[in-house]
Amino acid sequence: MKDTYGGSREDYFGLLYLEQEHQLPRDRAIRQIAFGGNDFGIDGFYFDLSRRNLYIYQFEYSDSYARFKTSLQQLIDTGLERLFVSPGKDDSKNQLILRLRSCLVENRNLISQIMFRFVFTGDPEQADKSRVLEKLREDLENKRYVIDSFFPGRSVSFVIDFRSAGGRVGVTPSPHTSAKFTIPMSNITSVRGPEGQTMHMGLVRLIDIHNMHKALGPRFFHRNIRYGLGENEAVNRAISEALRRIIIDQAEPPEVFAFDHNGISMYVSHIEPAGAGYRITDPRMLNGAQTVTTLAGFLAKNEDNPKLKEGMKALENIEVHCKLMTQADDKFVTRVTINNNRQNPVEPWNLRANDLIQLGLQDKFKDDLGIYYERQEGAFGQLSEEDLAEYGIKEDSRAIQMVKLAQTYLLTDGQISRVSGMRQFFEEDRLYENGFRQGRLKADSRFVVMCYKVQRKLKAITAAIEQTGQNKYWFVSSARYLVWALTCQALLNSDKLDEIADQHGTSMSLSNDFSNLLSWIATARVKPMLKVLLDDPEYAAKAQEGSLSFLRSDKAFEKCMKYARDTWGWSHKRLG
């Protein structure tokens, strides 16, 4: 059929699916499928008059759920607007979009539910566990207002699910993040944004925010840049002390809390007036995680304190300034999240927590090794063993952390000079996007974990080198990043790389065998390279003067690798 309809072989997977799933004759199914690109995240559709369901499909002839990332993003960025708001903006006059639009207009009063179905040949339960797809699915759900604008005066529900070509569906075919809360709100002010965004501001009871957190758990913080950081942080200690004075000691009135607190911000997918407040759908914290988690910890710590029961009235009267934002795209929400968190000390890497590459890495380490990647600061400590097991984490003793992972990538790239300036790395888009490039998602996760764990043994590695000649290798502690980089290259260039990776790259634990291997590498491989480096005419005089900055240079790494190529036949190995 390609000579007539074009497209690729994969496009006909969707055609066969429509024919079989909905018992459509081919001459009808062929008009409800996209062939070729420019599909805006939509590959096909079908309207079931008897069920009043409109099915909108994306097909991937693959067992990898990661293939849906691009199509979901297309649907979020342009697809919904093209379909429900402005189909005329498509200069290419995509026939599938025009036919689907015609179906929508013709059956506007009949459609009761829209089903977004993502069909592939893999396991839909794995797709449901993907952090990337979870975020994109939530972004799609948050654009419900686009669909609502097409159906004024009535509510048309929509469901997003992943399913296999054989009929298997994920754990929850309906949106599992949907939750509604009614909250009183006083002193309300509303503001309209430049592109239809809406923000409602007022005073909200802290106990109502706490109840949302209890109901939603970790999902409440999915849009935030970090989780609660614990009582050791000065800000959290201050919040805990303020709660004690108001609730336990009853030394201060509840009203003072709002004066002393910066307030919180949330994004909600839908908001409507309800009595003296609002009914909100799918709230997500943008700023205020420290307040919420500190309150939860305070209540747990004092659950046996009789004064807590006496002070519950005071707790119920504590209010905070609250901003509720809705009808905004993901880029705008990200901007608001970052700017709302600038008032408290936030590291530049925290602001990258919700980037798609970070979500993709979290999926990768989970899928490949069952290891948790802590892209949101403090997240790992907030999750119970049950939470981790449900997510698919097998190795729950330690998490991979973003900054250390970035250092691992940079050092295996040979960018020794970048490692001491991690703030600049995360602040500058060009540096960050190269360091966390898409190729990292294709690297062997065993190799990454193996190289990542080297930093945990750096002290022992440098000590092993220094002990072979204390006066001769006195400088080695100043070359720790270079030592880390060269140790990684020794591992990656080993003739037994796969065997070593199977033994030491599948978990976060440090075995004695791995420690012994690193000690051997230190003395048999890294030490000779360092000796050659210090004997190099360019560096010998500097070393004698105690000027050791060259040990933190990219050029020093290159000189060591040249010796390794000439001596052991190494090549420079990168992690993606």
Report on the architecture of this protein.
The protein is an alpha/beta fold and 576 residues long. It folds into three domains: 2-164, no CATH class; 180-346, no CATH class; 356-568, no CATH class. 48% of the residues lie in helices and 15% in strands. The chain has 29 helices and 14 strands. The strands form four sheets. A five-stranded mixed β-sheet has the order 6-7-12-8-11, with helices on both faces. A four-stranded mixed β-sheet has the order 1-2-3-4, sandwiched between helices. Strands 5-10-9 form a three-stranded antiparallel β-sheet, with no helix packed on it. A hairpin with a 5-residue loop joins strand 6 and strand 7 (198-205).
Provide the fold topology:
Elements: H1 2-5, H2 11-22, H3 26-29, E1 44-48, E2 53-59, H4 68-84, H5 95-106, E3 113-120, H6 124-129, H7 131-141, H8 144-148, E4 157-164, E5 180-184, E6 186-192, E7 198-205, H9 206-216, H10 234-248, H11 256-260, E8 264-267, E9 270-273, E10 277-281, E11 284-287, H12 289-301, H13 306-310, H14 312-316, E12 319-326, H15 330-340, H16 356-369, E13 371-374, H17 379-382, H18 385-391, E14 395-401, H19 402-413, H20 416-419, H21 422-427, H22 429-435, H23 445-454, H24 458-467, H25 480-492, H26 497-504, H27 512-535, H28 537-545, H29 554-568
Parallel strand pairs: 2-3, 3-4, 8-12, 13-14
Antiparallel strand pairs: 1-2, 5-10, 6-7, 7-12, 8-11, 9-10
Helix pairs in contact: 4-7, 9-12, 10-12, 19-25, 23-25, 24-27, 25-27, 27-29
